Amino acid sequence: METRSSTTQEFELCPKFEKTFEILGQKWNGLIIETLLSEGPQRFKNLAHTVARCSDRVLVERLKTLEKEGLIERVTHSNSSLIEYQVTKRGEALRPVMDSVHAFADCWY
């Protein structure tokens, strides 16, 4: 009887890929980014309305995370108490990714 030896290669994901999905896979982050890409700069109350099932506390946490990662920025307007959130250049680079997610969703859901 012949035995075959199989070589098992361990699959590893690229750490950069893992980091990206760690951020995008966190609940609400994709919807926040999509809203800012589609609608432009938004005040907190507008984001809270758009991502309605997300509590204000969690929305604040997610905005801080996305800001820390350089995907969005918090803009304070001078001579006003107006604060808005908008995508950065890095966040804008996610537009084709979000377009692909839309295409997938349109096809499969």
Write a structural description.
This is Transcriptional regulator, HxlR family. The termini are far apart. A 3-stranded antiparallel sheet has the order 1-3-2. The mean pLDDT is 93. The longest helix has 14 residues, at 95-108. It is globular and about 65 Å long. It has one domain: Arc Repressor Mutant, subunit A (Orthogonal Bundle), CATH 1.10.10. The protein is 54% helix and 11% strand. It has 6 helices and 3 strands, in the order ααβααββαα. The chain has helices at 15-24, 29-39, 44-50, 56-68, 89-92, 95-108; strands at residues 42-43, 72-76, 83-87. By secondary structure, the protein is mainly alpha-helical.
